[in-house]
Amino acid sequence: MGFKDNLKSELAFSGMLVKELAVKSGVNKYSLDNYLNARGQVPSVEVGVKIAQALGVSVEYLVTGKENKRENILYPIEARKIAEITSQMCEKNRKIAVAIIRSMKKHEDEEEKHEKNNE
């Protein structure tokens, strides 16, 4: 995969919209759209760094799709699969899926807290 595909994948994984990435990175939405469209323009190194920092990945990963395992958090394969599936959903359903997962995590945290209090 190239920059375009890796950028799309990381956007999906983060749950961030292009306009949110634009704000967080300081790179205008029009430029980001150009990196994501069919022609897949590649940004300058400086812009690539801004985008990578906003997404919490390395520039190397955005360009090559390979991670430096010593520096990055390794997510379980299930988490990557969820990101892949939700990236293919419409925005409305993606937001619902994220809300469901957050609710499940909150419930799990509350159960753990309750168990600790009962020990």
Kindly summarize this structure in a few lines.
With 119 residues, this protein is mainly alpha-helical.
What features would you highlight for this structure?
0% strand, 7 helices, 434 Repressor (Amino-terminal Domain)
Question: What does this protein structure show overall?
Answer:
The chain has helices spanning 3-14, 18-25, 29-36, 45-55, 59-64, 77-87, 91-117. It is mainly α. It has a domain at 3-64: Orthogonal Bundle (434 Repressor (Amino-terminal Domain)), CATH 1.10.260.40. The longest helix is centred in the C-terminal third of the chain and has 27 residues, at 91-117. 13% of the residues are buried.
Provide the CATH superfamily of the domain at 3-64.
lambda repressor-like DNA-binding domains
- Major sheet: size, sense and barrel closure? none
CATH fold call of the domain at 3-64: 434 Repressor (Amino-terminal Domain)
Oligomer: single chain
Shape: elongated
As a whole number of angstroms, the C-alpha radius of gyration is 17 Å
Please, what is the average pLDDT? 87
Percent range of helical residues:
55-70%
Q: How many helical elements?
A: 7
Give me the strand/helix succession.
HHHHHHH
Low-confidence stretches: none
Q: CATH top level of the domain at 3-64?
A: Mainly Alpha
**Beta-strand content:** under 5%
The chain-level structural class is mainly alpha
Architecture of the domain at 3-64 in CATH?
Answer: Orthogonal Bundle
Report the end-to-end length measured between terminal Cα atoms. Answer: 50 Å
> How many beta-strand runs?
0
Helices and strands in order:
Layout: H1 3-14, H2 18-25, H3 29-36, H4 45-55, H5 59-64, H6 77-87, H7 91-117
Helix pairs in contact: 1-6, 2-4
